[in-house]
Amino acid sequence: MDATFEFDWAAAFGSIPHLLPGIPWTLLISFGGLAFGFFIGIFFGLLRISPLRWLRWPAIVYVEVFRGTPILVQVLFIFYGLPQILGGPINALTAGIAAIAINSGAYISEIVRGGVQSIEIGQREASLSLGLSRTQAFRYIIWPQAFRRMIPPLGNQAIISIKDTSLFSVIGVGELVRQGQIYIATTFTAMEVYLMVALLYLAITWTLSILLRQLERRGLAGQ
Description:
Elements lengths: L8 H6 L1 H4 L2 H27 L4 H15 L3 H16 L5 H26 L3 H9 L4 H31 L11 H12 L2 H32 L2
């Protein structure tokens, strides 16, 4: 083993221009998947609190399956497995977005369920007594309050989904890790490049955390 290794800062900073093209792919996959996952999560989250058992059970199965299996396995199944069923290839970008959507949707459904159930039942009863329908009570009274309470866990899920995109290099998506692998193959500077990859991920998630804290404060101020 070479005991004279010295970290090459020039190589580390020199890798940045080669890594930057991966940022748009990372953001596109994570936020594209989260957008779909949010609507999936609302749908299954509301099914989870349905009084009808035949509506609750499909949602329970969905949540347990996709929370209980690794997202890496899910994206490999979508990219390599589904084409055998569909009879045609699936684009790597599409597979990545789909994996983030179905995986984050399972977690978001539980966030939605918890947020709605955290609102005191007395508020629903008071809304009905004022002449609002159940739908109106949910839309104007329950959901706005529940959504404000969901902001912190939704933000955490967004950060997790951004980091999950690092796994999609296995299917050739050109996100940050994949760009780093390509650069390392020609420069053999793994330590330096992966450090910069980590710092770029940190910059993205830190910026998002600041924005989410601002949004959370505004939400609390509106209560």
